[in-house]
Amino acid sequence: MSTRVTCQRSAIGEVIRSAPGPLHPREILNLASRMVPTLGIATVYRHLKHLRESGEVRAVGLGRNDVRYEPTDRGHHHHFLCRECGEAFDVHGCAGGIANMVPPGFEVQEHELTLFGRCGECVTSERTAG
């Protein structure tokens, strides 16, 4: 494998690990391109596939046709999606009583929760503009 591919893979991995939440492939491209300017979207998808297969990252569905990627080692957590800027953030902790919400006789095996609203930066920018 060439040094260039190693640099690309390293940049993609670093961007995903350092993000405050799951990222779109285009976000990964934009951030990793700062380290490897020649990086292309096909390479990002190729490396995401490899990282998923190796168990290093997982896909997170945050809505219809909204798949983002995050490291698998962050433990159980949920997400907040800003409806204004579109950025996703990790939310640590978990709402209690999830199992009590399902119909009688059902068994919860896992769950994902996405909170929707406006992030702190979008709220602050509206207050300073108004």
Task: Kindly report the average pLDDT value.
Answer: 89
Low-pLDDT segments, ≥5 res? none
Name the CATH superfamily classification: Winged helix-like DNA-binding domain superfamily/Winged helix DNA-binding domain
Beta strand count: 5
Main beta-sheet annotation: 3 strands, mixed
* Tally of helical segments: 4
Helix/strand order: HHHEEEEEH
> From the alpha-carbon coordinates, what is the Rg to the nearest angstrom?
17 Å
The proportion of residues in beta strands is 15-25%
Using the alpha-carbon principal axes, give the shape: flat
Q: Quick one: CATH class?
A: Mainly Alpha
Which structural class should the secondary elements be placed in?
Answer: alpha+beta
CATH topology name, in short, is Arc Repressor Mutant, subunit A
Tell me the span between the first and last alpha carbons. Answer: 54 Å
Any idea how many domains?
A: 1
Strand order of the largest sheet: 4-3-5
Gross CATH architecture: Orthogonal Bundle
